[in-house]
Amino acid sequence: MPRYALKVFYIGTNYYGFQRQKKLKTIEGCLFKAFQNAELIEDSEIFRYRAAGRTDRGVHALGQVIAFSTSKKVILGQLNANLPRDIRVWAISQVSEEFNPRFDALSKHYKYFLPYEETMNLEKMKNAADHLIGIHNFKNLSKVNHHTSPMREIIQLKLKKIHNILQFDVIGKSFLWEMVRKIVLVLVLVSKSLITSSEFQKLLDPSYIPKKGIPPAPAWGLLLYNVHYSALNFIKDYKIINEIISQLQNEISRLSCLQKVFEKICMGIY
Q1: Of 101, 120, 206, 132, the residue nearest 165 (C-alpha)
Q2: What is the pTM of this model?
Q3: Which of 56, 130, 205, 237 is catalytic?
Q4: Is 27 a residue whose pLDDT tops 50?
Q5: What are the residue boundaries of the structural domains of the chain, listed by start?
Q6: What fold, for 111-219+261-267?
Q7: Are the CB atoms for 248 and 62 separated by under 8 Å?
Q8: Mean pLDDT, the chain, integer
Q9: What CATH class is the domain 3-104?
């Protein structure tokens, strides 16, 4: 049976996360309604639906990847007609029967957008970011799950200022729960001298228990930008992409209105 991978965009603000939940509006729940309306699900076992990952409540995606098997013709326009405007499938690829978007991923690329403040020291932030590249124990910079190893590898961590927006680019093979958002917040705290460089480096020591845990940065700034695979050829729908670009620009411009919220979060920790 043919198997397909789709790239999915969504604005997470209006949803209770990605994963399907009873009686709650989620991204996955909306996708399954669209699958059913398009009559793509012939049998739940044969359908073999999988996703590259689960984003938390309020987190957005441009390049979430899902996969399923069906004998029916998959038409992106038909799926989008059955989806809310803030969820869009915009690219498709036929894949092998064994393809799993989570386990076959080479890496995941997250972006975090934050209003830039004059009290931030960009050089301090970049120097601290360099210390996070490589394999580390991220127990103090994630939401602990005792069944999962806290060891993770950051392949790339870059920051740049674009007009009044600070953009973080974080690439890794896989991430722990809230890991990217906690990395963002701790870098902001370092840049504002709210924690020292020595305190920051101690956070990578699993035996160190900070007096106050590092909370995650707000979900509204995080975007699952892309999931990288080897030799997948996605066919893109550029009409849908232009619609997505407009929605993303509107969402990013909202962040400047939320600057005071983020300031209060930072100052309330230290």
Answers
A1: 120
A2: 0.92
A3: 56
A4: yes
A5: 3-104, 111-219+261-267
A6: Alpha-Beta Plaits (3.30.70)
A7: yes
A8: 91
A9: alpha beta
